[in-house]
Amino acid sequence: MKTPVIAIFDVGKTNKKLFLFNERYEIVWERSEPFDEIVDDDGDPCEDLPRLTTWVQSLLQEVLELPQFDIRALNFSTYGASFVYLDEESRAIGYLYNYLKPYPAEIRQKFYKTYGDETTLAMQTASPALDSLNSGLMLYRIKYDKPKLFRRIWYSLHLPQYLSYLFTGQVLTDVTSIGCHTMLWDFNQNQYHNWVIAEKLDKLFGPIFTSDSVLNAIWLNHPLKVGVGLHDSSAALIPYLASFQEPFVLISTGTWSISLNPFNTIPLTAEELQYDCLCYLHYQGQPIKASRLFAGYEHEQQTRRLAAHFNTSSDYYKQVDYDPDLIQYLRDSRAHSNNRFEDVKAPPLQESLFRHRDLAVFRTYEEAYHQLMLDIVAQQLVSTNLVLENSPVKRIFVDGGFSKNPIYMNLLASAFPQIEVFAASMAQATALGSALAIHHHWNTKPLPGDTIELKHYAPAGRYAV
User: Fold this and answer.
1) 232-465 CATH fold
2) Most CB within 10 Å of its CB: which of 130, 219, 449, 465?
3) Domain boundaries, given as residue ranges, for the chain
């Protein structure tokens, strides 16, 4: 008897993964492979799209031939803000340009001179002005910076929809992809922004689908229910929405720490946008207020610095236990000034206070690392408060890397003493969310209520953990 499963491709910047989930959403098969970047026509790093395309198609063919599984459905979650371009013959052309690619100043100036000031456009599109990270501006850049390539583009697909297209042949647009800081979507008018229509870029996009939609496809003589794909941050939220009814904030931690509040419908202010707040679109189309902090990246940079200074391994921090007495000492010590939560300046928070600290004042690695976490959580407090304001949230869930860090979790609990703080763990939240999004199309069993494990962290006194 074959086990009915759903296949999920989960494509990150470095690691590409395929999971098979059974009807109880347990992982029954998985494969992961790291990919090296290549360079684009300007010499900037970018995704190796031909390799990714081949890998996805050949790996699905491999698992379709496994005798123990009946693959009934297929979906995708990937990083966002990245377009794939198709020509008249539906072949991928150009490059999958990196969202960190430097943006030409003259193109940027031309855009805002034509369509209005940054603040107004950012408020209308719920997208901080982030240049290449606004995927709409990447397409605009190609139109004026690479006109020969632009003239060859017939369709423009965000990466999750490109992967779906490989198996359905259908050019689609998904709400979570256009709703993630793309500067394409007017959140007030609930349609493409006027600048998109004026530039005729909307002609390059397929029809809009919500992320709980599927297409019926036959691939290699195998019938499949194929999802339209999701932006990874939106996908990671779905297991929580399926499991918890009471209002909550999810802090999804990785390279970025993204605070997502699906229960805050207040429109973004200019100040919030300046502080790196934005809105995502929920997989069924509703706005989700979010704030971003580059905390995982900063943690990685600073632990390397600590390792070099104290002559330890780069991951020595994993052996450091939470020490409340050390926290108290750091807070009280005059030698470590500016380490109170109250001293944190307003965002944007691209780097921590710790970057500017002299490591020579710390007696041990443990002491320095506790200070790093104090600085990061101080900024996390400011960032998360931006989406908490005036909403009825009683719980904060933390998933990803920092959920496994006891120092971070204990400090966070003390930073939010009026809110229950939980470390949440589940097997592959992003992939699971992509599977749950199309649950009712392939799975007749009820949604499981035990996909998320929670560990409660109690506050040990405001700011003095």
Assistant:
1) Nucleotidyltransferase; domain 5 (3.30.420)
2) 465
3) 3-228, 232-465
